[in-house]
Amino acid sequence: MNVFVLFLAFAVAWIVTRLSLPLLARYAGKYFLDAPGGLKHHISAVPVVGGCGIFAGMTVALICIRLTTNFPTGTLHSLRGIIWGGLVIFLMGLLDDLHKPDGLPVWSKLLLQAVATACLIYYGIVIRFIAIPWISFPLTFLWVVGLTNAFNLLDILDGLCTTQAMVCTLGLAIIALPSEFIYVNFAALALLGAGVAFLPFNFSASHKLFLGDSGSNLLGFLIAALCLGTGYSHSSNWGVLAPLLIAAVPLADITFVSCARILNGKNPLKGSDDHAALRLKRAGWSVHGVVYVFTVVAVGCNGLGLAVTRCTPVQVQLIFAGLLVAVVTVSYILLRLGVPHAR
User: Fold this and answer.
1) Smallest Cα–Cα separation from 269: which of 164, 149, 97?
2) Which of 124, 161, 227, 309 has its CA 20 to 30 A from that of 168?
């Protein structure tokens, strides 16, 4: 693997995203604004063009890699599925941002997410450890849609969704390095570069930008797609469980939020302040403190994800048993914090 090419994927994505975001904020920001109110506690309207910059940065980087490398025919074939599927998800999120505060109907989002998943399947990005299409295709759909929406739900605090995506992409890049699925390395590092470029804008007080639904949905979709493109079972058949650890924090968060809403008699598909991150914030944690803890947990889970690709079956079972106990314990503590009121 040419290290320079990997660096090029990261650098091009970073440069394009970094240069495009100020221009997007200046010329398109007035059309894509996130107004305060309800669950949103920012003081004034903020442009939600972060997703546009990330999509531009990653797409240009992947096209650049495709045009400047000489891999054997078909090596980067799956990149087309990521680009076309990512485009569908990006446009879906963009339309959702334009129709705020109501957004698009749930059925239309699911339909477009199904189309994006079909793009992945058409280009060979699918769950591989089950060779029966009528089982693997629906499971692929559930995985992609679930993780896409998990990242969308996670976009509730500055930097939270982006840092989670950055940790996942770094973990995927490390795990994929010895893999034959070369495109995962490029795509993961390109997404990492775009995320690194966007993060300072998300934390900025004077030039703040939000991801928007176009960005959060795109990040989730891309992470889901890249998880499907990496070989995990070279050393252990149990390695196929690694994606559950790579994306453990978003998956645990969407599960916690859904269960908390149901326990409180709420619609699990309707927004509320039941999120783990918001509960910690109400308990007195700073935004940076919450993001830091979530990041540390994600790094630990990605480390375990790398470990299970090399562990014995007993060791993998112990890892998941320990994580299950930890998740249940933390969830119980968070539920005890309560929710003062629903919005």
Assistant:
1) 149
2) 124
